[in-house]
Amino acid sequence: MGFTLRQLQYFQAVAEQRNFGRAAQLCNVSQPALSVQIKALEETLGGILFERQASDILLTPLGRDVLDHARQVLGAADRLDQFARDHSGGHRSLSIGIIPTIAPYLLPGVLAGLRAGDVSLRVQIREARTDRLLALLRSGDIDAAVLALPAGGREFQEIPLFQDQFLLAGSAARLERVTTSPELLRPLDLKAAQLMLLEDGHCLTDQALEVCGQDRGSGQINMGASSLATLSRLVAEGFGLTLMPELAARSETEAVSGLKLLRFGAPQPARTVGLVLRNSTSEEDWSGRLAQVIQDVGEKIVSATRA
Fold first, then answer.
1. Which among 130, 157, 194, 178 is positioned nearest to 277, based on CA atoms?
2. Which of 42, 116, 136, 262 meets the CB 3.0–4.6 Å disulfide criterion with 168?
């Protein structure tokens, strides 16, 4: 790179002030020194940047093109400088991915817990399905992912955090017809035609099919809902039954009138919620604190459901 940030700053000042003298004052430099740097920039870029008139300074076609790029470069440099100052002052950022069947129920408590522990921490959230989050984690676009384990992949380390048991959800009438002895209820007892699940691609659907001994090839299973909120409203109206994670149970029953839950007999089906990191991620204090906050929040939610 043959030009400097200082030259771009001087160039931008002249372009905006349309006067070399005012630009020099703005940059706190002498006019001859500013002119020398503008000349050096023109030589580097291979063309004249300004059309000098008696009472005005105009950009040449090359100058107009360069100004757009100069603003982008200087803007990025300012942001990098701000980041460096924030980092040296203890300000940090963290990018976390989380799957949709966990995000709305876990995030409020987790973000509050992280904020309470470090008010300067900036947290970015990416909500997506498991495959997408693993791709983002692999590419370095996120720092960690909250998923149902196992996620798979030798390049990742998985930290189990808490057990999220599945409940049977539906209308009161539907649940009454399932069994007269709830303690004897097993997921394998459910018929394919009774089940409504999330659309294909959600790991919760894969888990539900596995615990119910079903496969996605069954044309009797309705797999069309895009979210647990939609699924809750459908089964509450009697359109079928579904498996509801404890993590979502209280939130959905409070939001959906007529939604009822039934606990399976032992051993109760469950998913393991955990934190996934790259193997190359160094052992930093943020990962341990993040795991602890998620575990505390998750266990509090599922314990309240079991009470």
1. 157
2. 262
CA-based R_g, the chain, Å? 29
109, 113, 118, 120: CA torsion to nearest 10: 10
Q: 26-66, pLDDT tens digit by residue?
A: 999 999 999 999 999 999 999 999 998 878 889 999 999 99
Burial environment of residue 245 by CB neighbours within 10 A (0 to 12, 13 to 18, 19 or more): buried
Task: For residue 273, list its beta bridge partners.
Answer: 148, 162
Residue 225's beta-bridge partner residues? 198
Any bridge partners for residue 298, and if so which? none
Question: C-alpha distances in angstroms, 177 versus 235, 262, 269?
Answer: 14, 12, 21
- The span from the CA of 218 to the CA of 234, in Å, is 20
Token pair for 55: 């009472």
Of 129, 124, 167, 166, nearest to 151 by C-alpha is 129
Euclidean distance between CA atoms 7 and 13, whole angstroms? 10
**Domains observed in the chain:** 5-88 (1.10.10.10), 93-162+272-306 (3.40.190.10), 165-270 (3.40.190.10)
Percent of the chain scoring above 90 in pLDDT: 48
Quick one: which of 232, 233, 223 has its CA closest to 195?
Answer: 223
Q: Are strands 144-149 and 260-263 parallel, antiparallel or unpaired?
A: unpaired
Average predicted confidence (pLDDT) for the chain: 85
pLDDT at 220 over 60: no
Q: What are the φ/ψ torsions at residue 249 (nearest 5 degrees)? A: -60, -55
**pLDDT digits 0-9 by tens, 246-281:** 999 999 999 999 999 989 888 888 899 999 999 888
Parallel, antiparallel, or unpaired for β 156-170 and 122-127? unpaired
- What's the CA gap between 45 and 63, in Å, rounded? 10
